[in-house]
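pasting for the record
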Amino acid sequence: MTRTVSGARVLITGAAMGMGRLYAERAVAEGAEAVILWDRDAAALAVTAAILTERSAGRTLVAPFVVDIADLGAIAQTAQRVRTEVGHPDIVINNAGIVRGSFFWEHDNGDDTRPTMQVNALAPMYITREFLPMMMNNPGRESRIVNVASAAGLLSNPRMSVYAASKAALIGWSDSLRLELVQQRYGHVKVTTVSPSYISTGMFAGARGPLLTPLMTPDHVVDRVWRAMLAGRPMLTMPWTVGLSTVVRGVLPLPLWDAVAGRVFGVYRSMDAFTGRPRP
């Protein structure tokens, strides 16, 4: 088990605010050699980088990169800059994500479906592919890849069809990658797939936690994810009701599960009042 990220280079997407910023703060606090911040919001990124640089007191290189990971071509260009200007990351946290909370027929393909799939599913693959070969070829150094998915990728929910599809794709790829690395004896590179329920951030403003599944605080989630990453834990679902629900969903006949999830636990009504974060 890796105890801290001291001396490691950590890359975080969606790092200018919210949970991405919390991951960055944790990396700086533990004495990472470099914290590489990716975000499309240049102004917020500059503020976060300045705060982290002051907090690190010169112990950690804070390296901000403005990049929109929905632009898959920009990922390769920015990755090359990272390799040249900072060095290869030892840890990649694919944290950035977007959500569009609408019925499927209300989605616009160009403004909703395509960017949701690009940011949530394709971008983590593209980013990981840029840095994975060096991780694999350095067996003397522990490496970590964290892919932040969602419980929506495990359990269907109205008004989340495209988001759920993107996160289901992420989960399938992430855990398959883990297995491939184990099978081919690259055990020093560990993949953690994270599937949380609703978190009280602006991203899910208006969403209502189902029965026994209250909205979680960002600090709580980041702490759990951080510990799972350091331990190389393959899969993290939270809270515990997410894991229970997947088991019950697999056991019950579908009509009965729909009744339990919809009428008893309120899962299928959890997005009725969703507003989300204002679009840029």
